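Sample A.
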Amino acid sequence: MRKGIWDCRFQIPDFGLQSQICNPQSAILRGVRLAPNGPVQDVCLREGRLEEVRPICNLQSAIRNIEGDGHLLLPGMIDPHVHLRSPGMEAAEDWDSGTRAAARGGVTALFDMPNTRPATTTPARLEEKRALAGVSRVDWGLYLGATSGNPEAIASAGNIAAVKVYMGSSTGDLLVDDEEPLERVFRAAAAAGVPVALHAEDEGIIRARMAALRGDEDATIHGWVRPPEAAAAAVRRALALGERTGAALYFCHVSTEAELALLREAKRAGRAVVVEATPHHLFLDEEDVRRLGNYGKVNPPLRSQRDCAALWEAIRDGTVDVIGTDHAPHAREAKERPYPEAPSGMPGLETALPLLLTAVLEGRLGFERMVDLTSGSAARCFGVESAGWVLADLSTEHSLEPGEIQSRCGWSPFVGRRLRGWPVKVWVRGALVFDGGRFGKAGTGREVCFRREG
């Protein structure tokens, strides 16, 4: 198998400027930076691409001039891991509120997971969800959910990001944990040329731990219920299945040192493996659950500080390929139930870029590496083109307040945290979808086209 991230025909557009003349529908951005410490310069934004400002541009009165105020211009985030909860769980989120949150957070393309009600497990259900996505303000794509009985749907499901396999139970009723149906799904995905995206936790370990609970525990027990060994066991099993079937594997929300050791070794051996990390596993740990309670309950759980440090090291050494938010909102009412009944998940679309840009400014992460993690790598992995840009304010420190949150759930584990890098303007294919608190019209987003080899 090929080393590194999967090859694809289409690469992210150059972060450098194209030497073309602006057309009358272009915008000139005056006084922007293309790196945090880069020079202030003027650029031309034309249909989602940056171009040099040629003298003729200044003579065309129809061209819009936008003051950049020295802010940073960077590619919009491609978020490959989002739960917009529709159909069936609209009390937490829908395509309107969720893509407002995405636009506000500088996410210009997102891929929606299949664990809705009903789950997205057939071509017909994909079409139903496509109709719901018509209101999206950002570009979007869809996953097909795997079940024990739907491998044939994989071949007939057109234009999907991947087949999502839940090896451990989570929100919704999707679960494939027996060996024979798992192998059928992996083989069907390999034959169709689509990746298998994995929620890798061992269901047997989880069930045994759940059975041992008394019922009066709080959320601090969650890391014991779904321990690191459950994640490592599932990763080991998935790697063996991938080797046996030839399926390309995308490991969602990797969170532990043990998983990273297995995946680092697999990459060194040239396996077709992509590794995703989430902002909440990078910026929160198990100690935060004491403060957050059920609002910090997430699958896989927030981990130890040692696991968190290992995840940052994997960011730096290239083991982690992609940042996905795993935006998984739930209504406050649901989160405030007793621990065993409260659902797992937290929102993340609005805070991912500010968290990461603040880490860049603090010296924890290089800017070019951050851009690749949030845009370039996902574009290569899924065979899509990046068509969004974000103007972010690196100078103003701001803490998120509940009243600002666009996600319908209305809460975030990062409320009160002071961050820089908040988006002030966001474009999708040249259309301004967020402008200092104002939003573009619903329906601006389009379905992305996943292009694979062969």
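Sample B, a different protein:
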Amino acid sequence: MAAERLKAGDAFPKITLQSVDGPVDVSDRWRDGPLILAFERHFG
């Protein structure tokens, strides 16, 4: 299945991520203003 790219004006996809404080709805954070997501992988 191929993923579709977002276009200007599209709604932000419904994505929920787990954090140390519990689930975070990314679309709610996006609605509040600019958003930067950073993912870190721990080795060891």
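Observation for Sample B: The mean pLDDT is 83.
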